[in-house]
Structure formats: C-alpha cells, structure tokens
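Entry:
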Amino acid sequence: MTYVLLLGAPGAGKGTQADAVREQFGFAHVASGDVMRAMREEESATGAKVREYYDKGLLVPDDVVTEAMLSRVQGEGLGYLLDGFPRTVAQARALDEALAKGGKKIDAVAYINVSEGELLDRLTGRWICRKCGEVYHEKNKPPSVAGVCDVDGGKLYQRPDDTREAGQTRLKVYFEQTAPLIDYYRGRGVLAEVNGEQSIEDVQKDLLKALREKLT
C-alpha cells in the first residue's frame, strides 16, 4: 500500500494536480475537508466527536482529525493520495506513528512550491457578475471595463473570501501551521518539490516525474 501526501498553500493548485496524480497512479484521493464533512454526519464515536466540535464552532483537535482520516485510508487498493492532511507537524507525527503500527509509512510528499506574492495574487482579485455568475480575475481574466461584466453588463462583486485581507489571513495560517511540514518531510527524504509558478501542464509534468522517481 502506497501513501502519498499532496502539500501546498491555498492557491497553489493542489486540486487541479490531485486529479492528475490520482489518474496516473490509480490512488484513491482522500481530501480532509470531504472526510470531515462526511464524518460529521456519521453515527459513530468519531462522528460524534467531530459534531461536538463543529457545533460549538471549535477547531477539531489533532487526535480527532487523525482518527477520522485514518479511518478512510485503510483497505485494499494501490494506495492513497492524502490532500489537506496532515496540516501540522503534530498531525504528521501522529500519522507516522499510526502507519508504523501496521508496517506502513509515507512514501512520497508532492509539494507544489509557489511564492507568497503569487499566492496572494491568485487568491485575491476574483470578481463575479451578479446577473450571470461569470467569473473574472484582476490579473488572469480582467473584464474589458472594471466592475462591469463583458457578457451582460452586470455589476461585478467580490465575495468576502476573495478579498486581499482574507487572502493574507489564509496564507498567514498556512505559513505558521502547515509550512513547517516541508522541512519535516524533506528531512525524511520523501519530499518531491516542483515549481508551481509554471503553466498547469508543466507543473503536472514535473510533479508526476518527481513522484515516479520517489516511488520507484
């Protein structure tokens, strides 16, 4: 059983590349957000723990998150691609310990490296038409006239999550809590790092090549 992690900041393009990795290697894609939402609805001991924290608006503790994720990566198949977990070094250590009990380990960590400035540009600057829902971006797909939809002339608006302030907050949390995982896995010799500021196609090519080298 092979275990691969997908690591990168918000805006790095993990979702796009996860599909390519899954198709290339035949791994089951396990995204932490999907798991936690599904676990919240389950009538199980772990589900009850997850609901308790969600209902109180509290952050789910590392041990509960780890328990929930491990419940999804047991079974038959070629392997698992973990996305969004672990988020902290504490979670990474707990995952390593749990896998080691079954004689398993993290085989490779695919890290999409994108600079903070580029990440902020990607996360912010998105505008949406109130009439038709057409999506624009100040840098990658600007409208012909600022604030006006090219399709129907509707007024463009920005969702709270797409503001510069929100983007800065998301990145601050990532660099404080998740970025230390880069050195953690580099020290274990399993990090496969690629330049995420290339075209989607070039990132995909380099990422798959780096993973093949780690897994052979």
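The longest strand covers residues 2-7.
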